[in-house]
Design brief:
This protein is 45% helix and 18% strand. With 334 residues, it is of the alpha/beta class. The chain folds into 3 domains: 44 residues, 434 Repressor (Amino-terminal Domain), CATH 1.10.260.40; 125 residues, Response regulator (Rossmann fold), CATH 3.40.50; 140 residues, 3-Layer(aba) Sandwich (Rossmann fold). Strand 3, helix 7 and strand 4 form a beta-alpha-beta unit. The relative contact order is 0.13.
């Protein structure tokens, strides 16, 4: 089947190409009867407007781009769910891409969104601050999600508090040898969580903290950490693991729960509170980040900036993490 073009619609409707364009753009001066006839032909022929061509002509788009780091992690897809809801409320579509936690991949995705003239971009940075200079130069608005920024609007979680909440919970449940498993130290969130955890531990003499930085945070890493714990002499094992995300906690549980009594022998605490954490065979305690709300707030910040007059002042919205205590740290809750 050949592609239906604008002039095909005009020919079948007996009007000019300009009239068809006016109907598509809801120009109020178009005669109601003519508009009805044109829409009928559009439906009959199956014409689909070329939004990319339109955005190139007008310099505007009704699409928002979202680049995040890991599509396999439910935390980020939940972020996108919240952002999509906010976008839809204001008549925007959400296009997303994953950087695979790589700055090069992030840069390529930003280039793609630049070429498609998206109205604005949400970014969850891979490592350091993203290179947004070209987007900003052409007037494209940028909001950072899950990262604080002074140069853009941003929404983020207080990860220092999150680290402190997690460590304090483990100490309050009687743990004295805590293993903190984090991603690369180059990521600000990891540094903040370690800082909060160390502050909580420092307030309790006799509590030991070991920190393990992994190149990434995944189920496979969790399994590897679990195997390493089981290989230790019993007297050297930690009595609690504070995982950098819930995927690590899930992988860890897959290994240790078959050998150890969780939480009697080993308490396990995750981070993010993805749905799978609470739905595990042994429900996993976690530090909740309110991912869907964070994504929603990020998109609202972007949409508000798109409609803001000159002199817009960037906002940094900080969210408060929450402890979700479940069986993996406190035993069966009745």
């Amino acid at each position: 089947m050949s592609l239906v073009r604008l002039r095909d619609v005009a020919q079948h409707a007996g009007v000019s190409v300009g009239t068809v364009s006016n109907v598509l753009n809801d120009v109020p001066s178009v005669n109601a009867e003519i508009a009805h006839r044109v829409r009928g032909v559009i439906q009959e022929l199956g014409y689909v407007p070329n939004s990319t061509a339109r955005s190139l002509r007008t310099g505007q788009s009704n699409a928002i781009g979202f680049v995040f780091t890991d599509i396999s992690n439910p935390f980020f897809t939940t972020l996108a769910l919240g952002a999509s809801a906010a976008a839809a409320e204001s008549g925007y579509s959400l296009l997303f891409a994953t950087s695979e936690d790589d700055e090069g991949g992030e840069s390529k995705n930003l280039d793609v969104f630049e070429r498609h003239r998206v109205a604005g971009v949400l970014v969850t940075p891979a490592r350091s601050a993203p290179d947004t200079a070209r987007l900003l130069a052409q007037g494209t608005k940028v909001v950072l999600v899950d990262r604080h920024s002074d140069e853009h609007c941003s929404v983020f979680i207080d990860d220092t508090l999150g680290g402190a909440l997690g460590a304090a919970h483990l100490i309050e449940t009687g743990r004295r040898r805590i293993l903190l498993v984090l991603g690369p130290d180059s990521i600000q969130q990891m540094r903040d969580r370690e800082e909060g955890c160390r502050e909580a531990v420092a307030a309790h003499p006799g509590v030991e903290l070991r920190v393990l930085h992994e190149p990434t945070l995944s189920v496979a890493i969790g399994r590897s950490v679990g195997d390493a714990i089981l290989a230790m002499p019993v007297e050297e094992r930690p009595d609690a693991v504070f995982a950098g995300n819930d995927l690590v906690a899930i992988g860890l549980m897959q290994r240790v729960a078959r050998v150890l009594d969780v939480p009697r022998d080993l308490a396990v605490l995750g981070y993010d509170d993805i749905d799978f954490a609470g739905a595990s065979l042994i429900p996993i305690s976690s530090i909740g980040q309110r991912a869907e709300h964070m994504g929603y707030v990020g998109a609202r910040l972007l949409i508000d900036e798109l409609g803001a007059p000159a002199g817009h002042v960037h906002q940094a919205v900080g969210l408060t993490p929450a402890l979700l205590a479940r069986e993996s740290t406190v035993g069966v809750i009745r």
